[in-house]
Each structure stands twice: as structure tokens, then as C-alpha cells.
Specification:
Layout lengths: L2 H9 L5 H11 L8 H8 L5 E5 L5 H15 L7 E5 L2 H13 L10 E4 H12 L10 E2 L2 H14 L9 H13 L19 H14 L2 E2 L1 H14 L1 H10 L2 E4 L7 H11 L5 E5 L14 H4 L1 H4 L4 E5 L7 H11 L20 E8 H17 L12 E5 L5 H11 L3 E3 L9 H14 L4 H7 L9 H14 L3 H10 L5 H20 L4 E3 L13 E3 L6 H11 L2 H7 L5 H14 L6 H10 L12 E5 H4 L4 E6 L10 H24 L1 E15 L2 E4 L4 H4 L6 E3 L14 H8 L6 H13 L8 H12 L5 E4 L3 E9 L2 E6 L3 E6 L3 E3 L6
Parallel strand pairs: 1-7, 1-8, 2-3, 2-6, 4-5, 6-7, 9-16, 9-18, 10-14, 10-15, 11-14, 15-16
Antiparallel strand pairs: 12-13, 16-17, 19-20, 19-23, 20-21, 21-22
The structure holds a DNA duplex.
Length: 801
DNA sequence: GTGGTTCATATTTTT
DNA sequence: TATGAACCAC
């Protein structure tokens, strides 16, 4: 595209002087408003560069400007840039931001993506170097576990004592450290009952046989290829003149090697990260990557971005003071020229329910404006928790008071059963040798093919050394499975063959060996008769899968059908089924657009990279946050990571940050009491305001002496707090409180008598047959006899809805 | 081969 | 408490 075209696009048809002037100004506008440090990060073009970007210091902006600068001032082609992120969300955001950067990028930066998606792209071209076919499948966690279970069975290992998940974790850890089975050090030989290494080797062999890889393999295979095929490496070293890496503190060893190898020719590697925000150590991220950047990349320059544009001074000061407690850090001091703002607010509650109730009320108050804080919309506020089980209390509370909320990062679309089933069908249609997919769907919907029938297929397939689908075909031909099951299997096999044929039109030979970039084989096919969308629908219908859910009468069935419809709709964005499968296995997120303002609830991990005017940080209790397990397992390292999590949490807040803790909390159904988090001690007093909950001791008005004193004093060593502790010991954990639940329980249990007619929301009407504590045994007219919690039962004539 | 009951178990989560 | 997996009974 010529620059005149752009001008036309920008200024309409007019080419006036004024427009020209405007154009040349716009052209450099990517640098406008950058602070000196940011500008330094943009201008340092050659050689290794580490940008230490603190929270809210305009990191993304700087990166975008850097790309624009490279392309405009240094004549770099978009395809010479490799830009790597961790999450698809980040990649997507970068893509969008690049498009918006004025006059910079005429052609899209093609090599922009996650480590995994870029590796997948590369691996499809060179798969034969690691004994894979280019159409290898990428396994999801489900498949992985199923495969490992099979291995454990073959090796006669007790799944109870040695859970498959554990082995999956061990293998993942090795892969994160770029260790192939042969390279696992002897010091790890004890892993998984001394059999870990051997099982890892077997696992890799099975993957190869299945023409499949797991997520770790995508990187590990590429590192292996780079290390053993200098010609291949040289090709990409040459191509990627400039490498950009986001969230560098989250890289693991394999990713470091991957980057290091690729950058050795031009050495133009620019990594952006913040050691203080490294919170993924538990899944293999290695902070030493960022701490030792200068040694790993000799001649590296380090630029610090320390001016924070996000938070007010009180909030920033609190965050800085907390993170200062960490020993191993590169050291940064964030500052801001923003206003002082509100102090960080701290509040203690009696228990988790009350904490949720208080936050609910506070959300309402803040929508109107309270305590000098401007009125805010619900979507400007977020609740960030340490562990997802904390979310329940909020959901319960918000449901009862009708507070609109959304949970970010919950169970995702792709993880749903029906989606995985449908995907397995698609996978099988695209690659019939996908045994794991076959296993998943042979008997879904029910075809009368149970363990025995499946074993027959397995045996036949193994004897003939073929895939399960092929084995099943032989089984059908030889009539090894009789009756209903045999007939159903024949239908399935015929169907698969038919659908597979539908993926292609007539074959066309193309003379083209120049295509290196898309890695497509020179054999092409004509247009298929059906679009892939139609094909997907055909597969789901003809396999009986749609009917399976239509016949299902459970309350979830309509939703599942809805999801399947959504899945088919999504296909519209892709050219074919293969493309879609790759997308789903790598991208797998599906955030629905929400309508209306809602308060967000999410984990601290999920909140990284986000910001909100008002942030609530509940559950700051020792053992919960910092998490006991973290400290037990990795000691001081774990504690430091928890502290970084606290830092991440506080720095999400722009204007108001509210930290809270509860004295009592129900954990696994048991009441537990706990001390306020040690991180609360690390909050600087002068930047913290201690609030008093209006109903702390069950009353309505804060009138008793305890509350007043708690408000004045420093909560963590206040008499109020100590008294709270004392009370708790005095009354014990079972101290009944006047909560909604206990009231209902009490009346409910008391009011039911044997033989009484009752109603249950889900099971309908029935008669009481027995009472045990808060559980009532009811013979339901339709659903049979069940034990249900009295709370959910109502006398026949007293149904409240 | 299916369904119901019992039993163990319990961060953070992306690709 | 609450969920999932394993096992046992039809």
C-alpha cells in the first residue's frame, strides 16, 4: 500500500497542504506523550533490551510505539518481527492496539502470538524432524489424563496411590524445564515412585504413535529441532530480526531456550516484564530468567519504567511498602504525579459471610458515592480473591440481594462436556487416527458399546497395528460384535468415513514448492460440496449426538444444545474444520459479552494486567493469603510469590482499594478461625484507614466501645482485634449466629413430621419418611426416595413461589 | 451396561 | 460443604 492510499483513507480525496502537514505529524504521533524512559525504550533498537515495566507504567503503549518506530524509522518489515505473548488475550490485545497505532503498520505483524501458537505453526512445518506428521493433534488435559491412566494400567501402578494427575504434573514440570526423557537428571529419578522417567518415556512414545503432542511438546519439540538442526534454526534466526517478548517474568526454561536460540543471530531481543509481578512460579515460570537477563544476553541494556499512571499516591505507597519485603528483586520504585487520593481502606469482619454482606452494601454505597469517593458504576469495581472457593460467599450473597456480578475465568466454554464431545467428533472426522477422540465418543451417545466391546476393538487394533477406527472397521467386517452394538458401530464407522470424505472436494495437483510461509502441502483439493459449517451440523446430527441431548430431560440439556449451536456458529470465523480445531485447542477462551454493568469477581491471578477504579481484596488471613500450602511447599520462595500476588492485587486499583479479613471462615464445611494476614502488618499505617463494619457484633449501630476503639486503633494489634480473638475462643466456633440459614434450618427441621406432604424445588411433591438432623428423607412422587436438606423443603401448602 | 450410592478429597491456571 | 470418581448392585 502506498502512502498516498493511506492519505486518501485518512483525509478523504483532498490532498491539501494542510492535510499533508497533518499527515506527517500523525505519522510520528506514536511517540507523542511518551515519557523519557519510555522513549529510551523505544529508541534503543539494536541489541538485547530489558524493559522493567512496573504496574501501570504504560508498558503496552511503549511496546506499540517501539513496533511503529522499528517499522517507520528503521525500515523493518512487519514479517521480520516476532512478537510473543503468554496468553491469547494479550496477543489479541496487541493485535488490536497495533491496528490502531496511526500510520505505522500497513501489513499485520504476522508472527505475533503466544509461545504455543507460534510453536505450533513452526512445528507443523518441521514435524517430520521429530517423527510427527504435519497434521498432529494437540491434546487437551482430558486426553492427557486418559492416556496416562492407560499407561499406569499397563505398568500395574495403583492409581489411588499414584494419581495420574500427579504424573501429568511431573511430566509437565520436566517439559517446562526443556527436559526430554533422556535429559531428566538423576536427581529426579525418585519422581513418581522411581518410575517417573520411565513412564515419561513411555508417554512420549505413545504420543508419537498417536501423532499427537501436548502443550509442553509444542515448545519442547521446537527447542529440540532448533538444537539438532542448525539449518532450520538458522532459517528462523535470519527471519526474525527483531524479537519482542511480553511478560518475560513468566517464561519458563523451555521458553527461555526457545528465545535464546532464536535471538542469537541478530541479538535484537526486547523483553518486557516485571519481576515484582511474577506469580506463576508454581507452573514452571522461572524468575531467574528476568533476574539474570544481563548475563544471559551479554551487552543487554535495562530500562526501568517507574512512573505509574494508574493509581493514586496512597495506593501506590501501600503497594510499594508491601513489595519491599521481598529479598530477590531487581528493585524498582514506582512514583506518580497523581493526586494523593483515598487511603487504602482496611476492615475486619466476624466471618466470611459478613465480609460478603459488607462488600455487597459497600458496592451499593459506592454507586451513589460515599466517603468522598465519586459515584462509580458496577463495572468499575472488582473483587479479587486468592482462591476461587472464596467466590462462593460473594455469589451467594449477590444472588440474594440481586447484585449483578460476573465471574471472570470460571469454567470455560471449551471445557464443557458437550463441547469436548463435539470436538472429538470433529477431530475424528479430520484425522481418523485420533484414538483418544475415538475412545471419547464410541459410546457417546450410548450405542451399547461398553467395556467389553471397546476392549475387542482395542485388541483387534493392536493386533493389526492400526488405529482404533481402522480396528473397529475390521471388527465390524468380521462380525466380532453382535446385535445392537455391532449395528451401531457399523453406522458410526460408515458415518466417520462419509464425513471424512466430505471435508474435501476433488483433488487438484498444484505445482508449488515455494510456500514456506503457510506450510501447506502442495496437494490441494477443490471446493467441498458442503461448507465446514454444514458438515459440522451433519456430523452432530447424523451421529445422533444432537438427538442425545434433545432426548435428555435434565434441566441442563437445553443449555447444552444452545452451546452446541454456539459452537457451530463459531465455525463461521474459520476456513475449515482443521483451522477451527487448532484455534480451539490453543485459544480455548470464549468470553461472552456481558450486557449491563456488573461487578467482576476473579482470582488475583486472573486480574493481572487489568485495572479497576475500585478494588476489593477480601480474605487477607494468614493461611488463606498468604496461602499455607504455598509457604509449606516452597518456603520463603512461596511467601515471596504470595507477596507479589498482594502487590499485583493492590496495584490493580486506580482510586479505591479496600482490603478485608474475617476472623472466622468455613473451610470444607468446618469453621476455622484465623489471624489477619502478615501482609496487613506490612501496609504502611500512614496510607491506611481502618474502617469499622456497621454491624460487626451482630448489632445495627456501632455503639459499643469495642467498635469505636477498633476504628481508632491499628487493627492488627488493636484491643478490638484481640478481644475479637478472645471472644472467639470463649464461644467457640460453633457459636450460632443469627443468620438467614440457621433460622430457616431451625424452623424447617422442627416443622416437618413423619408422613407430611412436602414440596422440593427440583424433585416436586413427596411424603416425609424420616428425619435425621437437618436432613429429611422424602419419598417423592416422581423422583423416588431421597435424603434432602430440610432447608430446601417446604410444607405442601406453604410453597413460597 | 447402566445407574445409584459411597468415599475421598479439597490453591493459584494458561497453553 | 460439595464434587468427582470408583465401586457395587441390578
Amino acid at each position: 500500500m502506498s502512502s498516498f492510499d493511506e492519505m486518501d483513507a485518512f483525509e478523504g480525496a483532498s490532498l491539501s497542504q494542510q492535510a499533508m502537514a497533518r499527515f506527517s505529524q500523525e505519522k510520528r504521533s506514536y511517540k507523542k506523550g511518551l515519557n523519557p524512559d519510555q522513549e529510551k525504550a523505544v529508541d534503543k533498537v539494536e541489541g538485547p533490551l530489558l524493559i522493567l515495566a512496573g504496574a501501570g507504567t504504560g508498558k503496552t503503549r511503549t511496546l506499540m510505539a517501539r513496533v511503529a518506530h522499528l517499522i517507520e524509522e528503521h525500515n523493518v518489515k512487519a514479517y521480520e518481527i516476532l512478537a510473543v505473548t503468554f496468553t491469547n488475550k494479550a496477543a489479541q490485545e496487541m493485535r488490536v492496539r497495533l491496528e490502531k497505532t496511526p500510520y505505522s503498520v500497513q501489513e499485520p505483524v504476522k508472527w505475533l502470538g503466544t509461545f504455543h501458537s507460534i510453536s505450533a505453526k513452526l512445528l507443523r512445518r518441521h514435524s517430520e524432524l521429530v517423527d510427527l506428521k504435519p497434521n498432529f493433534t494437540i491434546l487437551d488435559t482430558d486426553d492427557q489424563i486418559r492416556l496416562i491412566k492407560q499407561l499406569l494400567k499397563v505398568n500395574n501402578i495403583d492409581e489411588k496411590r499414584w494419581p495420574p494427575r500427579h504424573l501429568a504434573g511431573v511430566i509437565e514440570d520436566w517439559k517446562n524445564r526443556a527436559l526430554t526423557p533422556a535429559k531428566v537428571p538423576a536427581s529426579d529419578a525418585g519422581a513418581f515412585n522411581d518410575k517417573g522417567i520411565e513412564l515419561y518415556a513411555q508417554y512420549q512414545t505413545r504420543l508419537r504413535e498417536l501423532n499427537a503432542v501436548d502443550f509442553g511438546d509444542l515448545l519442547l519439540h521446537m527447542v529440540t529441532i532448533f538444537q539438532s538442526h542448525p539449518d532450520v534454526l538458522a532459517q528462523y534466526q535470519h527471519r526474525f530480526r527483531y524479537i519482542l517478548v511480553d511478560e518475560y517474568q513468566d517464561t519458563n526454561v523451555a521458553q527461555y531456550l526457545w528465545l535464546h536460540l532464536l535471538s542469537q543471530k541478530h541479538k535484537n531481543i526486547c523483553c518486557v516484564g516485571d519481576d515484582d509481578q511474577s506469580i506463576y512460579g508454581w507452573r514452571g515460570a522461572d524468575v531467574t530468567n528476568i533476574l539474570r537477563f544481563k548475563e544471559n544476553f551479554p551487552g543487554a541494556e535495562v530500562v526501568r519504567l517507574e512512573q505509574n499512571y494508574r493509581s493514586t499516591r496512597h495506593i501506590l505507597a501501600a503497594a510499594s511498602n508491601v513489595i519491599r519485603g521481598n529479598e530477590s528483586r531487581l528493585g524498582k520504585e514506582l512514583w506518580t504525579d497523581r493526586e494523593e487520593g483515598e487511603k487504602v481502606r482496611l476492615i475486619g469482619h466476624w466471618d466470611g459471610e459478613e465480609e460478603a454482606r459488607w462488600i455487597g452494601e459497600e458496592l451499593d454505597a459506592m454507586q451513589v458515592g460515599t466517603r468522598g469517593v465519586r459515584p462509580m458504576n458496577l463495572d468499575e469495581m472488582a473483587i479479587l480473591v486468592r482462591a476461587s472457593h472464596q467466590m462462593r460467599a460473594f455469589e451467594d450473597r449477590f444472588l440474594t440481594i440481586g447484585m449483578p456480578y460476573k465471574v471472570i475465568g470460571g469454567p470455560r466454554f471449551y471445557e464443557r462436556m458437550e463441547i469436548r464431545d463435539a470436538m472429538a467428533y470433529f477431530r475424528l472426522v479430520v484425522s481418523p487416527e485420533d484414538d483418544l477422540a475415538f475412545e471419547r465418543i464410541v459410546n457417546t451417545p450410548k450405542r451399547g458399546l461398553g467395556d467389553k466391546a471397546q476392549q475387542t476393538i482395542q485388541v483387534v487394533a493392536r493386533e493389526n497395528g492400526v488405529s482404533l477406527v481402522e480396528g473397529a472397521r475390521i471388527v465390524v467386517e468380521q462380525g466380532l460384535i453382535k446385535g445392537k452394538g455391532g449395528k451401531a458401530l457399523r453406522e458410526l464407522i460408515d458415518g466417520l468415513a462419509r464425513w471424512n470424505a466430505m471435508t474435501r472436494g476433488p483433488r487438484i495437483e498444484v505445482d508449488d514448492d515455494t510456500v514456506i510461509d503457510d506450510g501447506v502441502s502442495p496437494i490441494r483439493y477443490g471446493a467441498p460440496e458442503h461448507t465446514h459449517i454444514e458438515l459440522a451440523q451433519i456430523v452432530l446430527d447424523e451421529s445422533g449426538y444432537t438427538a442425545h441431548w434433545q432426548n435428555e430431560k435434565t434441566p441442563e440439556a437445553p443449555g447444552r444444545l444452545e452451546n452446541l449451536k454456539e459452537l457451530v456458529n463459531q465455525l463461521d470465523n474459520f476456513e475449515n474444520l482443521q483451522g477451527f480445531l487448532e484455534h480451539v485447542s490453543l485459544v480455548m477462551d470464549n468470553e461472552k459479552e456481558t450486557d449491563g454493568a456488573k461487578v467482576s469477581i476473579m482470582t488475583l491471578h486472573a486480574a493481572k494486567g487489568l485495572e479497576f477504579p475500585a478494588v476489593f481484596l477480601p480474605g487477607w488471613e494468614d493461611g488463606l493469603f498468604p496461602s499455607q500450602r504455598s509457604m509449606d511447599e516452597t518456603g520463603i520462595k512461596g511467601l515471596e510469590e504470595e507477596r507479589r500476588l498482594a502487590y499485583v492485587g493492590i496495584t490493580r486499583a486506580e482510586e479505591v482499594c479496600t482490603i478485608s479479613f474475617a476472623a472466622n471462615r468455613r473451610v470444607f464445611g468446618q469453621w476455622q478461625n484465623s489471624m489477619p494476614s502478615r501482609f496487613i502488618d506490612e501496609l504502611p499505617e500512614e496510607h491506611v484507614e481502618v474502617l469499622t463494619p456497621p454491624g460487626l457484633y451482630g448489632g445495627g449501630q456501632p455503639s459499643a466501645g469495642i467498635e469505636t476503639r477498633a476504628a481508632e486503633a491499628n487493627v492488627y494489634n488493636s484491643p478490638g482485634w484481640k478481644r475479637l480473638q478472645a471472644r472467639q475462643g470463649q464461644y467457640g466456633m460453633s457459636q450460632p449466629r443469627e443468620t438467614r440459614n440457621t433460622v430457616i434450618d431451625a424452623t424447617a427441621v422442627a416443622s416437618f413430621t413423619l408422613g407430611e406432604r412436602v414440596f422440593h424445588k427440583k424433585f416436586g411433591y413427596g411424603a416425609v419418611e424420616g428425619i435425621e438432623g437437618d436432613k429429611v428423607e422424602v419419598a417423592f412422587d416422581k423422583a423416588g426416595t431421597k435424603k434432602v436438606v430440610a432447608q430446601y423443603l417446604f410444607p405442601k401448602d406453604d410453597v413460597p413461589f
